[in-house]
Amino acid sequence: xxxRLRVLSLFLAVTMLVSLLAACGGSNGNSNAxxxxxxxxxxxxxxxxxxxxxxxxxxxTALLPPVSANYQARFADMEKEFNELYPHLTLxxxxxxxxxxxxxxxxxxxxxxxxDIAYIGSAxxxxxxxxxxxxxxxxxxxDEMKADFDEVPYQYMALGDAQYGLPAYMAVxxxxxxxQFLEEAGIDWKNVQQNGWTYxxxxxxxxxxxxxxxxxxxxxxxxxxATAGVxxxxxxxxMAKSAGLPDYFDKDLKFTYTSKxxxxxxxxxxxxxxxxxxxxxxxxxxxxxxxxxFLTGQTMITGKGLASFxxxxxxxxxxxxxxxxxxxxxxxxxxxxxxxxPSFNGAxxxxxxxxxxxxxxxxxxxxxxxxxxxxxLATYYLASGKxxxxxxxxLFLAPITKSARTAELVEVYERNEDNVKADEIxxxxxxxxxxxxPTELAAEAIKIETEVIIPKLQxxxxxxxxxxxxxxAVKAAAVKSFGEDGVVVD
Length: 490
Description:
The structure is a single chain. By secondary structure, this protein is an alpha/beta fold. It has 2 domains: 189 residues, Periplasmic binding protein-like II (D-Maltodextrin-Binding Protein, domain 2, 3-Layer(aba) Sandwich); 233 residues, 3-Layer(aba) Sandwich (D-Maltodextrin-Binding Protein, domain 2). 46% of the residues lie in helices and 14% in strands. The chain contains 19 helices and 11 strands. Strands 1, 2, 3, 6, 7, 8, 9, 10 and 11 form a 9-stranded mixed sheet that branches. α11 runs antiparallel to α19. Pfam families: SBP_bac_1. This is ABC transporter substrate-binding protein. Keywords: Cell membrane, Lipoprotein, Membrane, Palmitate, Signal. It comes from Paenibacillus montaniterrae. InterPro entries: Bact_solute-bd_prot1, SBP.
């Protein structure tokens, strides 16, 4: 009997030992499998499947506009590669034009079923956060993912302690001139690139750039800025940065567009039209028309400008030389020169720093932890590595992730070194992101922008109201929203 008990005890001990070794071996195998996935191309494992079981299949949706020239043409390849990296995940991309991007997104948000990821500007984060429709992925991003990004653009996609997506690029909105026309007008554009210019200097320069025919009709304007459609707010907001109004709120969280600096800016905007340096029909000029006017020689300086416009002009020049009929109709060869916006009211030059990227959304239901991690994986895939590298390369923008800086490029473009230096100087003046503005204040400012500032600006450009009329309307709306003590009075 004792002998049987000893045999049984020995058998149980051996069984337990084998089970323990098997469990340890299984754990190591799972860890290695997970680690092997890390570092593949431009994605990284979040350790989604720690239980050893097959991960559940999931689909991540993304609404993406034509970020760069060939960006949307690569959607099928992007979906395929992401699935190869994560076989249990499907990335489903819905293309959108710039014109209908906001409408499509807002329609889906209002229905309570937005895409998991949408490509929008960081300035719109507060709008959707205030609706409670953004997904915080801060806990789903690995330390490796976070460390891949430059700190300043990374922070632009945050609000408080929440990380609502990842940045695609950081750029400066500038203006741009035709090199030949600038020199014919006697403008020292290299000095402007290095040292900037005041509004008074700019005003005289664009006057000198105007060309009229024998009948007194203007054939070339000094300055044209897109102000219609999706660009309706750009002109004012970009110029305001260098007019002593770098944000809607000052450091004391008082609304700034009630300052006399705002009235001074409005007067300058109207002045350039009254001078004849800008078209009287400026309020009807959209982004496509203003670029067409630049390429056809109808304006010396255009805005808003991005570094990528240099490449767009270069490509059109090549089409003209090839004489294959694919160039813009009636266009001329034009060398694009990047220029800073002027400074107004004696204020310092402050460029409009633009951080666009992949913002993460949630529906009415609370997403599972697993889905949140999967959304983070897809967001990081889009914002880093070769996807980001090639998009930024086509936009003539410097990458903002380590993985993109070392990624393979489809094509390498020649750059104008003067423009590269000018972009660097403009970027050096950029202010850090304001993280101290409460969501409710930011949302109220956007409401005033949408309901008052944009429509009144269109009326001002059309000559239907005066700068004082617009200033008074904005001030009244601001006092109504923020109270007498919540606005700047100077």
